[in-house]
From TrEMBL:
<keyword id="KW-0472">Membrane</keyword>
<protein>
    <submittedName>
        <fullName>Sterol desaturase family protein</fullName>
    </submittedName>
</protein>
<keyword id="KW-0812">Transmembrane</keyword>
<feature type="transmembrane region" description="Helical">
    <location>
        <begin position="80"/>
        <end position="97"/>
    </location>
</feature>
<feature type="transmembrane region" description="Helical">
    <location>
        <begin position="6"/>
        <end position="28"/>
    </location>
</feature>
<keyword id="KW-0443">Lipid metabolism</keyword>
<dbReference type="Pfam" id="PF04116">
    <property type="entry name" value="FA_hydroxylase"/>
</dbReference>
<feature type="transmembrane region" description="Helical">
    <location>
        <begin position="128"/>
        <end position="150"/>
    </location>
</feature>
<keyword id="KW-0560">Oxidoreductase</keyword>
<dbReference type="InterPro" id="IPR051689">
    <property type="entry name" value="Sterol_desaturase/TMEM195"/>
</dbReference>
<feature type="domain" description="Fatty acid hydroxylase">
    <location>
        <begin position="83"/>
        <end position="216"/>
    </location>
</feature>
<feature type="transmembrane region" description="Helical">
    <location>
        <begin position="40"/>
        <end position="60"/>
    </location>
</feature>
<keyword id="KW-1133">Transmembrane helix</keyword>
<dbReference type="InterPro" id="IPR006694">
    <property type="entry name" value="Fatty_acid_hydroxylase"/>
</dbReference>
């Protein structure tokens, strides 16, 4: 659900670059090891491909939502209250989209790449499948049928993903009472953990209340081990994009994040 941000795009990209640079400096000074050179360049390559895919699939996405928007007997007014309702509804939909993506093999095929990084940092936030735009609008059809404006849906989803960019970091510690309502870096580090207690936890986008309501919340209680439970996969962005689909059609196609026993694939970090 691509939203045109016109001339401000260059300023947003510049801000992202500054934030990433600041995090790299922090990691270096604190000796945190949040960045690994090959993995960082892989993340940037995946990011570039994802940006291209947004242009390729934008028309398809808007067509899907537009079709169901015309079918809706409702049309909410375009005001602040309607936007707030759309934003909260879109976040609720995102929670279920994300949760199902971890538990249904066809959707895990798209999502595997996001959990394949062995480190968490701001560049890992855009470790996204280039073909995810094919399925994401399908989950937002109910929002369009409820009469919420398409541009409100697109903006809400864009803001949701933008907020999540800030969650992929070790710079920010726990945030006290905020942890009870909003998704935070601490909560999202848990989501990326391959520790047994962290698997399939904290699916929220902006709000963590959905996880608390539906029993998928887990606070950060032990050091997080990042990546798939099967370990390192690859530095090749094309392999990372396609590996989920390859696994899907294998006879033994259990989702990689679920397999805590025998690795499906053994690979060296030197690959």
């Amino acid at each position: 659900m691509k939203h045109h941000i016109g001339p401000y795009r260059i300023y947003i990209l510049a801000l992202l670059f500054l934030l990433i640079t600041a995090e790299i400096i922090w990691s270096w000074k604190k000796e945190k090891g949040s960045y690994e050179v090959k993995e960082t360049f892989t993340n940037l390559a995946i990011f570039a491909g994802f940006q291209l895919s947004k242009y390729l699939f934008a028309g398809y996405q808007l067509t899907i939502l537009g079709f169901f928007d015309h079918l809706s007997p409702l049309q909410l007014p375009r005001n602040g209250w309607s936007f707030l309702l759309t934003f909260i509804t879109a976040d609720f939909i995102y929670y279920w989209f994300h949760r199902i993506s971890h538990n249904w093999k066809p959707l895990w095929a798209f999502h595997l790449i996001h959990h394949s990084g062995m480190h968490i940092n701001l560049t890992s936030s855009y470790r996204l499948n280039w073909f995810s735009a094919i399925i994401s609008p399908l989950f937002f059809i109910p929002v369009a049928l409820l009469g919420m404006p398409i541009n409100f849906i697109a903006i809400s989803y864009t803001l949701n993903l933008a907020y999540q960019f800030l969650l992929h970091t070790e710079v920010v510690d726990k945030l006290g009472v905020i942890e009870k309502v909003l998704n935070t870096p601490s909560s999202h580090r848990v989501h990326h953990g391959s520790n047994p207690i962290y698997i399939d936890k904290n699916f929220g986008g902006v709000f963590i209340i959905w996880d608390r309501l539906f029993g998928t919340y887990q606070p950060e209680t032990e050091k997080v081990n990042y990546g798939l439970t099967t370990g390192f996969l690859s530095y090749n962005p094309f392999k990372l994009v396609m590996q989920g689909f390859i696994d899907w059609f294998k006879p033994d196609n259990s989702p990689r994040l679920k397999d805590n026993s025998t690795p499906v694939l053994e690979a060296s970090p030197e690959e």
